[in-house]
Amino acid sequence: MVIITLQRAKCIGCNYCVELAPAQFQMSKKDGKSVLLHSKEKKGFFTIKSPDETIFDNSIKAKEACPVKIIDVKQT
């Protein structure tokens, strides 16, 4: 299981996450911030839980590239 969390309010719209993990992230045309696809929001944190282990590597790359460190990725 892979758990990805995005603290969207702090996003600066750099687009690194979209370039590195396009299956999980896209940029909003409304405000230019990253959107974690198929996520659920709770108190400003957007989270997905996926049984697809193949998304882990690209998600870690996105986490490491994020200049404001608002992406968290865990594997359980």
From TrEMBL:
Signal sequence span per UniProt?
A: none
Write down the SUPFAM superfamilies for this protein, in alphabetical order. 4Fe-4S ferredoxins
Q: Which PROSITE patterns match?
A: 4FE4S_FER_2
Name the InterPro entries for this protein. Answer: 4Fe4S_Fe-S-bd (IPR017896)
Q: Where's the 4Fe-4S ferredoxin-type domain?
A: 2-30
Q: What is this protein called?
A: Ferredoxin
